[in-house]
Amino acid sequence: MQKRLNTWWPSLVSFQLVSFDYSQLELRILAHLSNDDKLKARLITDTDFFISLAADLLKEPEHEITHEQRQNAKQICYGILYGMSNETFARETQMNIIEAEQFVENFYKTFPTMTQYLVDLKRHVLENGYVQSIHGRPLYFDLSHTTSNEMLKARMERQAINFVVQASACDIMKVAMERINQILDRMFPFDLKIRPTPIRPVYLVLQIHDELIFEIENNSRTNEILNIIRHAMEINDHINLSLPVQMKSGDNWESMISIV
Asked: Residue ranges per domain, the chain?
């Protein structure tokens, strides 16, 4: 069904759809917030992060890591951000519970500074009743029932981690979108006294999580526009890691292929 839906987003005639997607944005935010040097080092290398991680967790050479093992490593990374339990991780990866628990334990051991940051963040929200994104946007919690209700306490801890990372990603994306809009307004003002046609060669169509999808006209300025948008997204005043953006293009959302 997802593939069928993707084909419902065709580009205009003489236009192409182009996706600009932040690479591992939430993990980079977590690495910045936790100041975990091991996590940072893995994210700034040119190797496939999840293959490298799977090899480390499973104690196997990278060239022997299967697609399934890579997906398991990816799932545990994002599972931590979304509050996934060991039982859910085992079910999603079709591991038995002992294998899943060992996989998760190895992950925490691999990144001890990040692990301690998550512990400290949970303690902070239970003591203070709020957390903040990197731009200071707060989320407040009601602490009145948490002392006696372990389920509420656990949910609050999961929501705190989730908010800090995802709200920070949202902060970064909103700044990038505003920056791109200002640049495009200067390049292609909506003023018929300046421009003979109201049709722009570039439009923002969709924003999904860490991804922006534009319609861009195929003409002599296409590459210029691609580079301007990517550069605007990669400008980084937020975290102490780079913010690389991957681009894909195609006639519809489903047919997109990577471009340099």
From this structure: 2-36+111-259
Looking at residue 65, what is its pLDDT? 95
- Residue 12's pLDDT band, with cuts at 50, 70 and 90, is low
**CA 221 vs CA 39, 88, 117, 175, 189: distances in Å:** 38, 48, 46, 24, 16
DSSP string computed for the chain = -HHHHHTT-BPPTTEEEEEEEESSHHHHHHHHHHT-HHHHHHHHSSS-HHHHHHHHHHT--GGG--HHHHHHHHHHHHHHHHT--HHHHHHHHT--HHHHHHHHHHHHHH-HHHHHHHHHHHHHHHHHSEEE-TT--EEE---TTTTT-HHHHHHHHHHHHHHHHHHHHHHHHHHHHHHHHHHHHHHS-S-TTT-S-S--SEEEEEEETTEEEEEEE-STTHHHHHHHHHHHHH--SS-SS---EEEEEESBSTT-EEE-
Predicted confidence at residue 82, as pLDDT, reads 79
Residue 17 has pLDDT above 90, yes or no: yes
Q: Name the class of domain 2-36+111-259.
A: alpha beta
Tell me the pLDDT tens digit for each residue of 207-242.
999 999 999 999 999 999 999 999 999 999 889 999
What CA–CA distance (Å, rounded) separates 75 from 84? 9
Q: State how far Cα 32 lies from the chain centre.
A: 14
Sign of CA dihedral 111, 112, 115, 116: negative
